[in-house]
Amino acid sequence: MEVVYEDNHVIIVSKRSGEIVQGDKTGDVPLSETVGQYLKEKYQKPGNVFVGVVHRLDRPVSGLVVFARTSKALARLNKMFAEGEVHKTYWAIVEMRNGELDTSPESSYTVVTHWLTRNEQQNKSYAYDREVPRSKKAVLRYRVMAVGDRYALLEVQLMTGRHHQIRCQLSKLGMPIKGDLKYGAHRSNPDGSISLLSRRVEFVHPVSKEPVCAVAPLPDDALWKVLAGKVAPVG
Predict the structure, then answer these.
(1) Contact present, 167 and 177 (Cβ < 8 Å)
(2) Residue of 144, 151, 142, 154 whose CA lies nearest to 223
(3) What number of other Cβ atoms are within 10 A of residue 38's Cβ?
(4) pTM above 0.70, yes or no
(5) 23 three-state secondary structure
(6) Phi then psi dihedrals of residue 147, to 5 deg
(7) What per-residue confidence (pLDDT) applies to 23?
(8) Which residues of 138-169 are buried (b: 16+ CB within 10 A; e: fewer)?
(9) What pLDDT shows up at residue 80?
(10) What is the DSSP letter of 219?
């Protein structure tokens, strides 16, 4: 865990792949408890420390997670997430199965719409090109940031929030995320991660009303660094 942003009401940390955000049946220590222990020790607080969970990342995903440090911030952040006022940007390394991809600096986002169904037993979602029974509309947009020999780096922004949405939709497009065996990747990553990073989060602070923008560090991995090094500068 790495703290990226912190004030009296909000703390944003960069989660490692394999960490869980909130307690589950595995009994593993969740990130929420790790954050609470960090705050307790840093500020020498007696008793329990308030840490409010406002969103989650899948266990094999790395990157930014926002927590509330006060009940006021938690209520307001919950409302902001529900109303789409928190803007999250993901980076994904994907397998290239669709030939050449446009990496020109001026390349625009591609908007993709599918209809997703969720299989609870498999903990997996399935994407369809048209509405089917019990499906939910899923919309994201992506652009190609860089291309290597076998993999491409995409920037992805969600326009809806569905179960495994990025993983499922990119797989449906023939671009499964590297390491994501559940959604069609050829092989797993050695550390059990998938190459999906919650890279940036932007929102208006729920209390101070000042803009907040946090950026996650890249995973300590050679391919991430090679592809990120090819990204054209903005402006």
Answers:
(1) yes
(2) 151
(3) 17
(4) yes
(5) coil
(6) -130, 135
(7) 73
(8) bebebebbbbeeebbbbbbbbeeebbbbbbbb
(9) 96
(10) P
